[in-house]
Amino acid sequence: MAAKRQFTRRDFLQTTSAATAAGVFLGTSAVSRGQDSPNERPVFATIGLRNQGWTITSKSTKFADFAAFADVDANVLGATNEKLKERTGKKADEYSDYRKLLERDDIDAVMIAAPDHWHTKISVEAMLAGKDVYCEKPLTLTIDEGKLIEKIVKQTGRVFQVGTMQRTENDHRFLKAIALIRDGRIGDIQKVTCGINGATGSPKIPAIDVPEGLDWDMWLGPAPKVPYRALPEMRVGYGGGVPLYTNCHYAWRNWYEYSGGQMNDWGAHHVDIATWALGAGDSGPNKITPVSYSLPVEYKDGYPTVSDQYNSPTKFEIHANMPGDIPMVITSEGDNGILFEGTKGRFFVNRGKLTGKPVEDLESNPLPEGAVEDVYGGPVSENHTANFIEGMRSRKQPISDVWSHNRMLETCHLANIAIRLGRELNWDPAKREIIGDDEANAFLSRENRKGYEINV
Asked: Any keyword Hydrolase (predicted)?
């Protein structure tokens, strides 16, 4: 097995070097051939396996071999490895500590699906260890973390794909939406509304014993040391099989300590597409106004006053002033998706539909040939992993790069800061700092817990 992995890596790196020397960006067909020839397949590892971790892994087995898994929950680690064996016929090596995985020189890239508060530390350490990185969205917990990742990508030359899969998948309807705008089908954009769903609060959640097999201290990692909390009621559907109310497992998304609530969860998808459509991927907003919002617990000076309940917003309407003074509304109300309104019409897009008169008009007046490919920057990849591997081979950044992602995510981070402090924020997109508000600027970074610092 070791000899085979070394051969696979050597062959992959030779392919990469040849593509780089020629300055060629390999298309999807070149990547797809790799599924038939093991000698052309890169070697991957996944860190963080529950839910989305397995989703991105299972989509990637067509293109890559998985040599290692890491997770702080022994139960998830073992169960996911069994799924891999069922899918590919072989298991990956198992690690409870991802750092041991990064020490291996036979791994070309890592896929990261740990909770958000771990993304930056693992990503930085992976790049410094010579690995290319695919990391789930939202990429960061703070704006300054995004700046650090950008610095390390530039320093190391690693290829980095953010897991905003709407840029590639979902039948390319989001690409078609942007193509409609670029072709002038709604005229000049006047307003964009991103519906990203509301959330619910929680009852008081008691501190209880840590479940067997879970390394709670390691799960917390950079976050403050707190007790494990959960109620007996179990979650059903996606993210099921774990407590419905907890500060771990699937529900960590509802805590500012580990995430950014719906603003960073669904916002990282729809605000991304809206920002791309506006051509604001290298600038972002200059003002964030919290028109209305509801928090499930009391706050003081931007921090929750209790520690046993969910604390991220449940309802909100945020106005972001985008370049050209175009308003972007981010709301918990209405249909999940994006409404584009222009001087000549409007249309709506989400993962299930693309509707509106400009869309209906395509039947008699189709988009120019290659319009969708022009948005994408070339032939559209088979899926997000295929695009990542194309980037690995060409040494060019993929469709969801860290710079445009961070600029988009700054809107979401600023919206959360505005809600926490209850006031409008003026943002300097050139300096990437809040204007005239030292208290708000303090939320641009967060100190990691001792022992979990990021060493660069």
From this structure: yes
Contact 196, 336 (CB under 8 A): yes
Q: Which amino acid is residue 222, in one-letter code?
A: P
d(CA 140, CA 148): 10
Are 117 and 222 in contact by the 8 Å Cβ rule? The answer is yes
Q: Say how far apart CA 329 and CA 289 lie, in whole Å.
A: 10
Token pair recorded at residue 9: 């890596």
Strand, helix or coil at 230? Answer: strand
Amino acid at 197: N
Specify whether the CB–CB gap between 124 and 148 falls below 8 A.
Answer: yes
DSSP 8-state secondary structure symbol assigned to residue 238: T
Whether 84 and 30 share a structural domain: yes
Of the candidates 246, 208, 212, 221, the residue with the CA atom closest to the CA atom of residue 74: 212
Local structure of 149: helix, strand or coil: helix
Whether 126 and 229 share a structural domain: no
Amino acid at residue number 327: P
pTM: 0.92
Q: Report CA torsion sign: 423, 327, 284, 178.
A: positive
β-strand partners of 193: 329, 339
Residues 256-289 pLDDT 10s? 999 999 999 999 999 999 999 999 999 999 999 9
Residue 373 one-letter amino acid: E
Domain that holds residue 325: 189-339+404-444
Q: Is 292 helix (H, G, I), strand (E, B) or coil?
A: strand
Q: Longest C-alpha distance within the chain, in Å?
A: 63
Residue with tokens 């392919």: 15
* Residue 65 main-chain phi, psi, to 5 deg: -100, 140
**Residues 322, 275: Cα–Cα separation, whole Å:** 9
Instruction: Give per-residue pLDDT as tens, 220-238.
Output: 999 999 999 999 999 998 8
Interhelix angle 143-156/402-421, nearest 10 degrees: 160
- Whether 199 and 270 have beta carbons less than 8 Å apart is answered as no
- Same domain (yes/no): 312, 213: yes
